[in-house]
Amino acid sequence: MKNKFIGISDSSFLDIYSIIHLVFGLIIGIILFLIPLESNWLTKKENYFIIGFIVLILWEIFECLLRWIKKYYPDLTEKLMSFLPDCWFAKENLLNSFGDLIVGLVGLILVFFIAKHIL
What we know:
Blueprint (H helix, E strand, L loop, with lengths): L17 H17 L10 H28 L1 H7 L13 H25 L1
């Protein structure tokens, strides 16, 4: 029986690539805090999470787009694979995409609360 929560790449809620999504969430969070704005608009909790979550969703859409291109445009896929990692074209199910978003949000949350205590 397959484990749907952890372990099976691209079909479980969490897999080895979850680490990458956590780091991506951390990086997005750091970038959002480093953007200099006079009004500190992004440091307001609701704005920070809205922008961060939109970026995470756009990344998942980008991953889905690459899989769609792989399925319907093999010639274009070959060209894209010359400079993009093969794992970006791997099949993923909805559960795994949802897990990627949640793990990315954990990264955003960590940065937000750490930065709020430091700054």
